[in-house]
Write a structure and sequence with these properties.
The chain is mainly α and about 450 residues long. The chain has helices at about 5-45, 50-85, 90-120, 130-165, 165-190, 195-215, 235-265, 270-285, 290-305, 310-340, 340-345, 355-365, 370-385, 390-410, 420-445, 450-455. It has one domain (about 5-455).
Length: about 450
Amino acid sequence: MTNEKYEQDIGGIIRDIISYGGSTFAALVAASIYTMTDEYFIGNYVGRDGLGAMALVFPVTLIFTALGTLVEIGGSAVVSEMIGKGRRAEAEAVIRGNYLYVGVFAVVIAVAGNFLAKPLLQSLSDSPDEWHIVGYAVSYLKIILWGMPFLLAGVLTQGFMRCIEKPRHVLYLIFTTSMTNVVLDALMMAVFGMGMEGAALATFISQVLGAAISFWYFSFSGQRLGSPRKLCSPLVMWKEVKIGGGFALAEIMMFFTEFLQNGVILHYDAPQLLAAASISNVILSFAYLPLSGLDTGTQPLVSRLFAEGRLRKCLRVMRFSFFLTMLLTCAVYLALMVFTWELTSFFLPENETATEEMILFLRYSFLLQPCVGLSTWACGVMAALEDEWRNVVINLVPVVVQVPCIYLLPTFLPIEAIALNYSISDFGLALVGVILLVPFLRMHGISLSGIFKDRA
């Protein structure tokens, strides 16, 4: 093969990856703007304590994220399979069942959350000086909890839109709700000065709008459900749980680690580090959106090529995606380490500056970020080749690594070094991912070295 032909193949494969992941990436950008807007307005109009409150809220929202991830991934897989086999009526029954079951479960959690939010969050702090941060968190959480059933309706709709090959509709839905949140945040916080309650109300209204669009999409648009109004069986739901359970498990594990870390930070009387943790969550979720888009674009391409027996091109896609992933991850890493102060200051008002402890906390959490690219690539390859259990094992690594680190690191190092638990976990994820990937590839007749040696 000539160099010219080889370069054309590189360009063609990159275009294929973008075509598969482009719409998802755009949707992720819009969704990330949603979160970043809340953090920006809370940081600039409530202050550092408001950001600290958002760090306390974050673990609680992960419970709903886990539920949404479980049903979106599992439900989408089941619905796609049924549509592919021409069983549209059964697919529609699954869609209806998911909306009903998830809706009921979300309402139960929202009601329970409103009763438990205050005692749960107050249990993290033993100092009255920090209770005003808890108060901010409770006032925000009690409003957005009622919006979670609506949020999950939108999440489910996004998954089902992809099943019926309407990825651009996903972008329209997320963009509409995100821009609504941006406008309402500006009005309620910058104009009317409503503080944390204003940010929460803006989020709630945006979530209700997303659910309304979802209801319209499957009720009055051309995509309306036309089969008899029946629901899927519990066995189908169990199948969804088995498919999406590993991904939901990762969110639940994050809930425990974030909750524990918040408690330790408050125990050491370092509430400013809660603000740093909140800023870190937003920065990383936005910075790695291109990585998510790349991973989303690579997985179906690898799956299709491997199923078609086009092994040489499949290996080439794996190789190109690896180099693109690592290049992107290293570029993000350099930006995070060099511009840490500027990124932190973006989320703080002019009368509050980032402390040295906050900057150190962020840099400790970013320290081994290139490992994220390696673990993401390894997990993506295994998922593309229909891995059944390895990703579940990988998703257990953070809790196994982070929990002891969260308790031990502040014992021997300054409290800001607690953020090293993220970096140690990143390294563990990459190590376990590669260890599991090698035999997995061998099982499929592929060697890890063969991915990088093939130049034909």
